[in-house]
Specification:
With 78 residues, the chain is mostly helical. It is 77% helix and 0% strand. The chain has helices at 4-33, 40-69. The longest helix is centred in the N-terminal third of the chain and has 30 residues, at 4-33.
Length: 78
């Protein structure tokens, strides 16, 4: 059985991952407002790539934790 504290912690991680996605959307908005020849486009693409990698790693880790907690791995029962 999952404790409320663990559930709250996992939900906070999930919220953080969603915020990363919101940040990426904001970066795209800023990029669309910049002139096409702005040197900041390269920097912003770097940030987007970093956020995407972090979100992927975080999502994978969160999925594994939920699988463990819910007993889906190793033939356990939820």
């Amino acid at each position: 059985m999952i404790s409320q504290e663990m559930r709250d912690g996992l939900e906070e991680v999930d919220k953080a991952l969603r915020r990363i996605g919101e940040g990426t959307s904001l970066i795209y908005q800023v990029m669309s407002d910049l002139p096409g020849d702005s040197p900041f486009h390269g920097y912003l693409h770097f940030l987007i790539d970093a956020q995407d990698q972090f979100r992927k790693l975080g999502s994978d880790a969160l999925e594994k934790v939920w699988d463990d907690v819910l007993g889906r791995r190793g033939g356990g029962q939820a």
